[in-house]
Structures are given as structure tokens and as C-alpha cells.
Amino acid sequence: MELWLEARCAVRKKIAFFILLGWLLLFIGDRIDELRVYQGAQIAMYTIALASIVLLTGYSGQISLGNGAMMAVGGYAAALTLNKLESPVWFAFLMAVFFSALFGALLGTAAARLSGPYLAGTTLALAVGLPEIANQFAFLGGVPGILFDVGFPPARFGEEFTQYKWFFWIATFLALLSLFITSNILQSRFGRTWSAIRSNPLAAELSGIHSSRMKILAFTISSALAGLAGAVLAMTISLVAPGAYTLTLSFALVTGAVLAGVSSLPGVLLGALILVAIPEIADVLANSWGGGENFSNYLPGLIVSLLLILSVIFTPNGPGENLRRHHHKKASEH
Amino acid sequence: MQKLLETLLIGVSTGSIYALMSLALVLVWRSTRVVNFAQAGQAMLSTYIGFEIASRTEIFWLGLAGAITAGALLGAGVDFFFMRVLFKRAVSGPAAVVAPVIATLGLLGLIRSIVGLIWGGEFKSIEAPASKDGFTIGQTTIPFSALNLLIIATVSLILITLAIIFQRTNLGLSLRASAYAPEIAQLAGIKTARTRTIGWAIAGGVGGVAGMLVTSYNFLSPYSLDLLLVFGFIAAVIGGLESMVGSVIGALTLGIGLTFILNYIGTSLVFIGGFAVLIVVLLLKPDGIMARGKVRRA
């Protein structure tokens, strides 16, 4: 079979797979209670956010500790579009993507010239500072933030169709769409180029890759994804406020990405699941130990940090790596 | 004219605290090639311990001594139990570049959660060792207070002590040697691993002082030292991350600059100003102000 025909076939298969996955998720969404549906929407949100880190760190090799800041840009862009222009909801999400991509392109232009610790520090500074900045300007609503109301689900879905289920549908659709697009980008020329830049920058330059341009592109796409996740987060809490896009969120995302295996796109589903499960587990633990308010406030952070430290020490490239290595060993023995 | 002088004085006081944090970051970077984001956490835990001592004995200086000791022990502990383990497991693959940074980040989160579990999130304050009321010259009262003066004096004392250690003692010589050329230092008989742990301990102690001084005119919470970390990092970058003198100059410049923005423009631009300085320095002079044509490592 000719190569392009094969590729088109693969894409068709992938589309079919994603549609099937979507149907399955909606089917599940109909059969679980409200809380789980809401958590489903959260998982979808984290999936998009983690995909943005996988693309940036796992492929192009740039580190960003400030994904919370990129999400904030998306969230604020969506809320301002929806409120000031009274636009339809889909347009607000589109603007979230657009403005965070713009922000990412600017940041990426600076970032492409930075390496390791410099980039980490700069993005960390952004994650610490952006909530402060949002506090200072009146049109961003200060500490209480601004409302972001996507409205009730369409009437034709019937009376039974709850608000949370509507969030879940929107979030799931956007997450599947993002995963589909991201996986295509990563398997394309771009994904391979990024991997080349990451694993050997000099060799990549010598084979004619314009590495800083490609790095900026990675930052732009990654930021666009993060911005979309930020808008989805705003939708699930009906609000954009500095308190929603904290340093803790940025750290949680890094943790999720490391747990997922920084360069594994399917892994983001696992990472997202863990991020949503941790507060739940922490709650159970806090209750059973009879701890006070401190316990429920700080236990999730404790678990996240411990997981992060342990996984960086033992499986820095994600749980998949050890399995693969094991597999290789077996294969070479035969 | 008077406002100008006030701004300058307050700026030096603020900048001198940044100097301590950026020194702590530089000390660790020189020996370990890691920007230790957990420094904010280590400083915070040390400050909480200092706070406990200071509030029980009602003597600030005992608290400060406690914070320095706790910081030094904590710093040495982090290097010994954490960084050595991390570097022993040589990381390869996509995570190789980011693993140490992410590890210090995890440590910051861990210390923050532990502090939160023990002390909770509410704001604590430490009785300042000197008056916060400004000096009165003739008829006018300026915002520069005895506390500000004391902060500058304390920081100066610490800087002088560090300078003596680094320039005049054998320990300082081995610290500099193992930062400059680890392999050659090792060949010359310096126990580089132990020297590195001592470097971490010094950095931890210095960070503890920074935390105590910030808290003496501010409040203490699990998040209160985040901004100090960011400004300390910016100051260290101005100095090129390698140079201790450069980072102190960077910190004072940053402190004065940000105080000017605060007094003449307003609070809303302070952080943006700091961030702009960071970006401009990184783009125009990425090796810092002290660079002498050397290529940046890492």
C-alpha cells in the first residue's frame, strides 16, 4: 500500500477509536451519580492540561512550572469574552485558545533562549506572580474574580439532563478533541523534530532543524492546550479567580505529568485520574484519623509531593518505562 | 529629595533580605548545579522553628539562632538524604533534564504540607526586635525605622562572616575549589561530597535568617516566603547564578528598583517590574552582570 494511503487509513482508525471512546464515556456518564459526573469533568480538564505538559516537556524538552499561569490566561480570556461580548460559549473557548496561544508564543520567544534552571525559574516566577497581577487590575475582578457561566444545557436533552452532566459533555468533547489533535501533532514531523531537539540539540541543529523556531511552536501549542484547560476549569467552578490558578495547581500538574510519564500521551489519562483521586483519598484518610481542619487542607498536598518525589527518584520517565525496560531485558535474553 | 532618600534606604533594607535568599540559591547552584526551589520551604520550616523559640522565650535573637541551626541541619539533611540518592540514580530519557528541578519542587511541596499539618494556615507574627516606627529627623518622620537599620546591620554581619569564611579559611578554599572544578578538587584531596553538604548547610542557615528577617516585619504562613524565593532567584540571575558578589549586587539593585516602583508608581507594577527585569537580564545579559566572556554552563 502506498504510504499516504496507509497514513490516511491510520487517521481514520484513530477517529473511529476516539468516537467510540466518546460514546463509551457518555454511556458511563449516564450511569453514575452526580459527584462522579463532576469528577469526570475534572478528569477531562486535567487530561487537557497534562497533554500540554507532555507536548512541552516530554517532547520538546522544555520545562514549565507555570502551566497554572497559562491556564489562568485561558480562563480570563474565556470569561471576559463571554461577559463583555456576550458571545456564544464555543467562541469563548476559542478565544481562550487564541489568547493563551498568543501568550505562549511571547513566552516561548523568551524561553527558546533559556535552558534548564533559567526556564524553570522564569516560569515559576510567572506562576507565583500571575495571581498577584490579577489581583491588581479592576477589570480582572480582583480576589473574588469574575463569573463564567456557560448556561443551562439545551432543553432538547430533557429535564433529566443536569448541569454537571452538561459540564461533563463539554469537557469530555474538548478533551477528546485535544487528545486527537495532540496525538496527531506528536506523530507528525513536528513531534519527531521536537524529540530530536530534546535528545540531541546539536545534532538536530546540524541536520537543519531550526531549533528555536520549533521550541517556540511547542510553547505556543502547549500554552493553547493549557488555556483551553483553564477555560474548562473555569466552567466547572463557574468562576475565574486568582485563587483557582495557584502555584499548587501548577505543582499538581507537574506531578500528574511525571506520574503519567512525561513523554506518554495515553499516560495523561492515568495522571488525570490520580490527580482527581488524591483529594478523595486524602479526605477518607483525614476522616479515619480524626484529624482536624489542617489535615483536610494539607494532606492532599502531602500525598502529591510524596508521589512526586518518589516517582522522580524511582521512575522519572513514568511507570511505563520500567515495564518497557523489563520487556527489553526479556526480549534480549531470548 | 527626601522621598528619594527614603526610597533608597528602604530599598537597601528590602534588597539585603533578597541578598540572603539569592546567596542561598547561588551557594547550592555552584556546588550542585541545581536551582534549589525547596530553599523557600527549608527557610519557612526554619522560620517556624525560630518563631516557636522566639514566642516562648520572647527573645528574637534566640529565635534567630534557632532558625540558623535548624536551617543548617535541614540543608545538610536535604543534601545528604535526598540529593545524593537522586544523583546516584543517574537519570536518563526524556525526564533527565527536568528531574532535579522537579525533585526540589516536590520537596518544597512536602515541607509546605508538613508545616501546614503542624502549624495550620493562619498567619503568625514574630515580635520585632526593634521599633517599626520611622526615625524622626527634626519635624519629619521618615518610613525608615530602627528595624530596617537592624536588618541591614544583621545582613551586613552575615555577609562579612561569609566573606571571611570563603576568602580566609581552608573550608572556604575547598568550597570554592569543589564548586569551580570538582574533579581537580577531588584529586587535590578535598572530600567534595562532604564539602558540598557543608555548602548546603551554609545555604540553609542563610535562608533561615532571610525567613526570620522577612517575618519580623511581615507575617508568617506556609506561603509567605514564595515571593522571597522568586525575588531571590531574580537577584541570583542578575548576578549570573555563579557569582556571590554578583548576586548581592543584584539583590540590592532589585530591592532599590522595586521600592522605587512601589513608591513612585504603585503596588500593581511591583511584580511586573521584577518579572520584566528577569526577562530583560535573561535576554540581554544571560550570564549576569559579573560575566567575563565565559559561556554559560548547563
State the total count of DSSP E strands of chain A: 2
Radius of gyration of chain B: 19 Å
Order of helices and strands of chain A: HHHHHEHHHHEHHHH
> What string gives the helices and strands of chain B in order?
HHHHEEHHHHHHH
The end-to-end span of chain B amounts to: 45 Å
This entry's quaternary arrangement is: heterodimer
- The level 1 CATH classification of chain B is Mainly Alpha
Quickly give the structural class of chain A: mainly alpha
Strand order of the largest sheet of chain B: 1-2
Strand order of the largest sheet of chain A: 1-2
Q: Overall mean pLDDT score of chain B?
A: 87
Number of strands of chain B: 2
Q: What is the tally of helical segments of chain B?
A: 11
Give the N-to-C terminal Cα separation of chain A. Answer: 32 Å
Largest sheet geometry of chain B = 2 strands, antiparallel
Residue stretches of chain A low in confidence (pLDDT < 50, at least 5 long) are none
Task: Describe what you observe in this structure.
The complex is a heterodimer of chains A (334) and B (298). Chain A is built from 13 helices and two strands. By secondary structure, chain A is an all-alpha fold. Chain A has a two-stranded antiparallel sheet. The longest helix of chain A is centred in the first third of the chain and has 27 residues, at 3-29. With 298 residues, chain B is mainly alpha-helical. Chain B has a single domain (2-130, 142-284), classed as ABC transporter involved in vitamin B12 uptake, BtuC (Orthogonal Bundle), CATH 1.10.3470. Chain B has eleven helices and two strands. In chain B, helix 10 packs antiparallel against helix 11 (270-284). The longest helix of chain B has 31 residues, at 2-32. The termini of chain B are far apart. Chains A and B meet through helix 2, helix 5, helix 10 and helix 12 of A and helix 3, helix 4, helix 9 and helix 11 of B.
